[in-house]
Design brief:
The protein is an alpha/beta fold. It is about 30% helix and about 25% strand. Among the domains are: about 80 residues, Urease, subunit C, domain 1 (Roll), CATH 2.30.40; about 120 residues, Diaminopimelate Epimerase, Chain A, domain 1, CATH 3.10.310.70. The chain has 16 helices and 22 strands. The strands form 3 sheets. Strands 1, 2, 3, 4, 5, 20, 21 and 22 form an 8-stranded mixed beta sheet that branches. Strands 6, 13, 14, 15, 16, 17, 18 and 19 form an 8-stranded mixed beta sheet that branches. Strands 7-8-9-10-12-11 form a 6-stranded mixed beta sheet. The longest helix is centred in the middle third of the chain and has 17 residues. It binds zinc ion.
Length: about 550
């Protein structure tokens, strides 16, 4: 008998033992291919899943003529559909996504002129907005690939206009916003840049810490509530059942907690607190937070910027900007002290590190300060020197947390930044996974990338952009198998949040979170993956999206 059958019968015994005649399920999902992981492979059990109080009560394999299914108040016939553990995004900006959905959409603009005309349309359609915000521009997609300059925004509005680059690591602001913030040609800040014209005046482009110089009205609470609800609806429609928000302010965390308590927000979130010395002190006093829907016991740090805006900290200069190594957001000493403090609190430290120099420094700091099984995370781990990879894993279980669609978004220009020699160290997901002991939490970084978790599955396995290029895939030696990628989007993401005993698998006692498709993600043609519609999404035993009722 195969090992997985033993495992399955063990599971069954547990469920039968806990399932006397007095038990009644709330709902049973009938006739499904139920995905089960075994090591790095995935197999299906055909049968039924009974759910009670939001959790999995039993998994009953189908047997001809027999019916061991606990009686349930309700049942749903899935007619042979494929039931996966609910997808989790291990690195995203949940509130940021909702805010982006309510601002000028600059994704995919093919020129700065196109961005400006989209801003113009938005201003005409939204006279109520006090601040015009936009997001998604990427100068790498424009002719000449030059940073924009804000002259074209003059006269569009007498309100502040602030447009974020796709990665959030640069903005272009109009003169109204600059003047309100007292930013001029002499403004300067560590870890940031205020770009200037030849005449010494700012172009409006502010990179990394320079964004913090902006002083325009904050987003109001009703706008933030709308953003959270919009983000939730988008996530559910694409099969996401939980999200790790990679950095929120305490007031946003409190707002989420309140909306969840009120039952308005139902999506489970694992939220990292945006670090600052004040935030660390505050949460040291408050202590960790854990409800059925919200967990807070980690901090998000930034050690460098992004590759696209040449903020990623490299060990050797940029190939396309000599004598430039990127921007350290925090000093080594600051990170070292912070790591000591986070370790003392018993919290998890999650640090954005893109460049090989940032990864090197942070891995050394983690090795020195992380507690055993601390699961401290390097977010992105985009360019990691080969000799640094083995600093992942170990007794401290240091984790790389990666976003496969970054590889396919960046692959066409990353070589210009890095040069061919450094490319094998970039987006090396299979290598990182091996180094971390076979665990690789996957995410999207939405709204930097699209929310759709199937794009992650496709990018991780096919290593192609959505238009199918390059035909043979990008650096395929670092492709993941479909089962590895699905595990990264479920079990490994849960593991990175210490939730692998409650989420990320379809097992007795786990939360009844499911992502359901009519087709088999393991076996369908690769090119069908990105457009596969989600049939149903379930969270805590409740159907939160169905393609038949939500269309
Ligand atoms: Zn992020």
């Amino acid at each position: 008998m195969k090992a997985h059958l033993y495992a399955f019968f063990a599971l069954l015994l547990v469920s039968i033992a806990g399932c006397g005649p007095a038990f009644l399920a709330d709902v049973t999902l009938m006739n499904a291919h139920i995905a089960q992981f075994e090591g790095d492979s995935l197999y299906y059990v055909y049968g039924h899943v009974a759910v009670r109080d939001g959790k999995i009560l039993s998994i009953v394999p189908y047997r001809e003529g027999e019916n061991d299914v606990p009686s349930a108040e309700d049942s749903v016939d899935l007619q042979g559909a494929y039931l996966y553990p609910g997808f989790i995004d291990a690195h995203a900006h949940f509130l940021g996504q909702g805010l982006a959905m309510n601002s000028v959409n600059l994704w995919g603009a093919k020129s700065w002129e196109e961005c400006v005309s989209r801003v113009e349309v938005f201003i005409a359609e939204h006279p109520e907005k006090e601040v015009i915000r936009g997001r998604g521009w990427d100068q790498n997609d424009w002719p000449g690939a030059q940073y924009p300059s804000n002259e074209a925004l003059v006269g569009l509005s007498n309100k502040p206009i602030v447009l974020s680059r796709i990665d959030g690591h640069a903005v272009v602001a109009n003169n109204v916003a600059l003047e309100l913030s007292y930013i001029d040609g002499t403004s300067h800040i560590e870890g940031g840049e205020v770009l200037l014209r030849p005449d010494g005046q700012p172009t409006g482009v502010l990179i990394d810490n320079a964004e913090g110089l902006l002083n325009v009205a904050q987003v109001s609470e009703p706008e933030r509530i709308q953003a959270l609800l919009d983000a939730q609806a988008r996530c559910y429609s694409l099969g996401l059942t939980s999200v790790h928000d990679a950095g929120l302010a305490t007031e946003d965390i409190d707002l989420i907690d309140r909306l969840q308590q009120e039952g308005r927000l139902t999506i489970p979130l694992y939220v990292m607190v945006s670090e600052s010395p004040e935030a660390i002190q505050l949460w040291k006093t408050r202590g960790p937070l854990k409800t059925n829907l919200l967990e807070v016991h980690s901090f998000k740090f930034y050690s460098d910027g992004a590759l696209g805006s040449r903020g990623a900290l490299l060990r050797q200069p940029y190939q396309d900007r000599h004598d430039h190594y990127g921007l350290p957001i925090r000093t080594y000493d600051y990170m070292q002290n912070a790591a000591g403090e986070v370790a003392l609190m018993g919290w998890q430290m999650n640090t954005h590190a893109i460049g090989d120099s940032a990864n090197h420094s942070m891995l050394k700091i983690y090795r020195r300060h992380a507690p055993a099984a601390g699961r401290w995370r390097i977010e992105h781990a985009q360019i990691v020197s080969a000799e640094d990879r083995n600093l992942f894993g170990g007794p401290q279980e240091i984790l790389p947390s990666v976003q496969p669609s970054h590889a396919t978004s960046d692959m066409d220009w990353a070589v210009e930044r890095l040069g061919a020699q450094r490319m094998p160290n970039a987006y090396a997901y299979a290598e990182l996974r091996k180094a971390a002991g076979g665990v690789l939490p996957l995410g999207t970084d939405f709204p930097v990338e699209e929310v759709n978790p199937l794009y992650t599955l496709y990018a991780a396995t096919a290593r192609k952009a959505l238009d199918g290029h390059p035909a043979s895939g990008f650096q395929m030696e670092n492709a993941l198998s479909r089962a590895q990628a699905l595990k990264g989007m479920t079990h490994d993401a849960a593991y990175a949040a210490f939730q692998e005993e409650e989420l990320g698998a379809i097992k007795f006692g786990y939360w009844a979170n499911f992502t359901i498709f009519t087709k088999d993600l393991m076996d369908c043609p690769m090119e069908d993956i990105p457009t596969m519609p989600v049939q149903q999404t379930w969270v805590h035993g409740v159907s939160v999206y169905s393609s038949t009722t939500n269309n």
